[in-house]
Amino acid sequence: MAVGSYEEICADAGAIEVDRRFADKILLPGFVEGHSHIMEGIVWTMPYVGAGDRRSPEGLLVQGIRDVEGIIERLREAADKLSDPDTPLFAWGFDPLHIGGQQLTRWHLDQVSTTRPIMVIHASFHISNVNTLILDRAGLLGPIDISGVVVDEDGRPTGELQGIAARFRVFRMLGGNPLSANLTTDDVNRYAASACIQGVTTITDLHSDLPDNTVDLYRAAAERDDFPIRLVPALASASHSPDDGIAKIERLKQENRPKLHFGIVKLVIDGSIQGFTARVRWPGYHNGASNGLWYVAPEELPRIVERYHRAGIQLHIHTNGDEATELALDAIEAAQTAMPRPDHRHTLQHCQMADAALFRRMRALGVCVNLFANHVYYWGDSHYEQTMGPERAHRLNATGTAQRIGVPYAIHSDAPVTPLGPLFTAWCAVNRVSSGGRVLGRETEALTVAQALAGVTIGAAYTLKLDHVVGSIEVGKFADFAVLEEDPFEVVPEGLKDIPVWGTVVGGHVHKAPGE
Amino acid sequence: MIAAQAAIPMTVVGGFLGAGKTTFLNRLISEAEGRYAVLVNDFGAINVDANLIAHHDGTTIALTNGCVCCSVGGGFIEALGGLLDAGGKFDHIIVEASGVGDPWRIAEIALVEPMLRLNATIVLVDAARIEMLLADPQVGATVRSQFERCDVVLLNKIDLIDRLSLERARDVVEQVCSNACVIETSQASMPNLASLHQRPARSPFYAQPCAVDSADHEITFRRWSYQRDGQFDRSRLALALAALPPELLRLKGACRLAGEANSALLQMAGRAWSLTDAGSEESSGIALVGIGTTSLPDRLELDDILDHALA
Ligand SMILES: [Zn+2]
User: Fold this and answer.
1) What count of other Cβ atoms lies within 10 Å of the Cβ of residue A178?
2) Residue B197's pLDDT is what?
3) Which of B67, B103, B226, B233 is the S-S candidate for B288 at Cβ 3.0 to 4.6 Å?
4) Does residue B191 share a domain with residue B226?
């Protein structure tokens, strides 16, 4: 793109034709979502039963549901639309923490149907609730002592399933997990549509085994003019040895093109805070829960990090708890000491509990951070009351600290865990208010509107090493814009999330967001 | 649905990083009694003897003895499902849990899936490091959970530590899992599945009709290991073995005999015993492992009986 006044641009680009269609709109750099997942394009094949409002890839507003009766009602409507009485009904997005701890039991789901299998997948994707029919057919109804098959005080299974054993059995009985079937073009298109609706023009798929089928779909999509996103998939370290991962990245980079960027590797160290699987330092979980899980052995981590670091590959490291963050920094420090590499930009993803000292280490080591601003809104109350307690909840996702100390940062949604929408993510970082109305660390950790918008544009582009081509409106970069109906610098900060998005421009191609 | 008696036995092998899982798996598949499918739930851990490999395509290794070894990384559930869909192609499924995973969580799959039955959960423990690992604030809880609920603990790498350290290692292991059968091993002397005599799983659980004989549910064992630097006298050994209590169910291991060049393999089951030439001059001294019922007498008492047979 060229930037400037009419005369200035003509001087560089020769005669130009003026397109005034956006004269009454506001153009921002296309938003960059630095941490989200292709799953966002898959879940919308099922009804949504979460508490917060969402937008479907068709641009429709899907109302959140805040009580169990409402969930039963929506499931009934969805079941009525299925013609075959035996087709399983799957739904997604439920989280009891968002509806005051109300549980969804098999007896509730039996009110929808006792003859059709019904499964509700939680927002975390690790837990599900099923009706009695599923438990019965899977042989999980009797007296049972299997981890993850939750029972009530009388020892009766409630229909909540958590562990790998129950999941294996139930999905086998149902004929497969709809969320782990082979990716399709429709899934990829839905992901792109969801991005367009939110003004996103560059988006990650931040954890993928990248099988051939997925790579083929991404390549084909990226070649289409009507495909409105630049995709940045991250290879999952967990499914590859470092040697295989390095070789695969080298191979995949041959496929890179303007709308497809392979090259980064994702490494997951611990679990989630609200699931009590994040690794946290003293004083541990506020409610006394035992410490979380390692997804990589602490002594193996430095070896993995060093291998990728030496190969010149940028790592995106998932650390939720501060013990995991510290371990990641130890590993990066060792790798940097063994082989100093300028501008490696290894990035900590989520990094929700880091204190100022950890941010100072990040800066010293050249590490970037992508903070989970949406968590402040969605789980801020749980963190205050249960997981972290008041003091640590106030510095949750410490964007202000990152800004002051000078750690390059971005903010993200982790969609579909929380809704995709950079304006909402920016709103979270500016206002720092929980869904229950509690203000968390606003004085010290809130960003200004300008800082928050940088976090969803150039800041995120920097963490993906794409800041030379996207993330700002600058001569020579791709002509990628978010087209807004209102100016984010004019609206009150509380209104940031409500600014309507008209659509996007990607590489000069105009994409009007699908909608009502 | 497939009848329970046709269920494929599944063995889960766990253990923390560096405990020796790869060597053990190698031993299991190279001495397989039938077609084993091995799922390695971690990357890069396949390391099969090169002369056993018939075909290698990156994540899957086909062996000349009909076994298949597959590194599954993230897609474990799909890979295991695929094996079951393949029908009766395999006689036994072995799953290696990841170095930080809890093998019991995987073992539970075989308790709820009618096409599988749980053979055993075997966890390897590095005898030299276990005490330190259990006390480690970062990984202690992870390591403990790995063998809290298992059938067999292979207390491995015993050749790398002295006797006192071995006893301490055994003590800390038995404190975590008093019910499991603890077998002392070294990288050079790993058991195979046959020698672990395929006991039914210890699972306290579950209405899985006719898959497991309920009488076997509560079987628990006590271990006894006997190690000396010296050698036995043949005739005194016969007397000593006869004096061992009936609660001792099995005794097995290598020993030197006075006046004989090669070391001998001692095997005793019930009252019957045999001494065969082990064909090796290398091993020195005596190293025996016994299995008994829970009322097996104190190890010092047993040691004393065999000490009478020393030359
Ligand atoms: Zn994520």
Assistant:
1) 17
2) 57
3) B226
4) no
Helix (H) or strand (E) holding A206: strand A200-208
Number of Cβ within 10 Å of residue A341's Cβ equals 14
Inter-chain contact B205–A146, Cβ cutoff 8 Å? yes
Asked whether residue B186 falls in the same domain as residue B232, the answer is no
Question: Scanning the structure block, which residue is given the tokens 């829960």?
Answer: A289
Residue in chain A lying closest to B205 (CA): A145
Whether B305 and B288 have beta carbons less than 8 Å apart is answered as no
Single out the residue of A278, A286, A379, A373 nearest to residue A328, CA to CA.
A278
Q: A-B interface: how many C-beta pairs under 8 angstroms?
A: 101
Q: Where are the beta strands (DSSP E) in A30-178?
A: 31-33, 54-55, 61-62, 89-94, 118-122, 128-130, 149-151, 157-161
pLDDT in tens, A354-374: 999 999 999 999 999 999 999
pLDDT tens track of chain B, all 311 residues? 434 446 899 999 999 988 999 889 888 888 888 899 999 877 655 667 777 788 877 678 888 888 888 887 668 888 899 889 887 789 999 999 988 999 999 999 998 898 998 888 999 999 999 999 999 999 999 999 998 888 899 999 999 999 999 999 999 999 998 777 889 998 888 888 877 754 444 433 322 222 223 333 334 567 788 988 889 998 889 889 988 987 787 787 888 888 888 888 787 766 666 777 766 666 678 988 887 777 788 888 999 999 999 98
User: Containing domain of residue B47, as a range?
Assistant: 7-206
User: What pLDDT, in 10s, does the model give residues A313-346?
Assistant: 999 999 999 999 999 999 999 999 999 999 999 9
Bridge partners, residue A369, by sequence: A348, A409
Q: Among B161, B184, B206, identify where a domain stops.
A: B206
pTM score of the predicted model: 0.84
The domain tally of chain B equals 2
Structure tokens that stand for A123 in this block: 């927002």
A76-81 CB contacts, 8 Å cutoff, 24+ apart = A76/A112, A77/A47, A78/A47, A79/A112, A79/A113, A79/A116, A79/A118
Amino acid letter for position B197? H
Q: Are residues B53 and B122 in the same domain?
A: yes
Of A138, A147, A240, the CB nearest to B43: A240
Strands A61-62 and A54-55 turn out to be antiparallel
For A299-420, list the strands marked E by DSSP.
315-319, 347-350, 368-371, 409-411
The answer to whether B191 and B154 have CB atoms below 8 angstroms apart is yes
Query: Are B173 and B242 members of one domain?
Result: no
Quick check: is B2 in a domain? no
**Measured between alpha carbons, how far is A383 from A275 in angstroms, rounded to an integer?**
11
- Rounded CA-CA distance A244/A209 in Å is 12
What residues are neighbours of ligand 1 (ion), with CB under 5 Å? A 414
**Residues pairing with B292 in the sheet:** B222, B248
What φ, ψ does residue A362 adopt, rounded to 5°? -55, -45
Check if the beta carbon of residue A308 is closer than 8 Å to that of residue A245.
Answer: yes
Which residues in chain B are contacts of A140 at CB distance < 8 A?
112
Quick one: B197 and B70 in the same domain? Answer: yes
Judge: B204–A139 Cβ closer than 8 Å, yes or no. Answer: no
- The letter for the amino acid at B191 is P
Contact A169 B78 (CB under 8 A): no
Give the separation between CA A248 and CA B60, rounded to whole angstroms.
17
DSSP B182-222: EEE-BTTB---TTTTTTPPP-------TTTS-GGGTT---E
Cβ distance B77 to A168 less than 8 Å, yes or no, reads yes
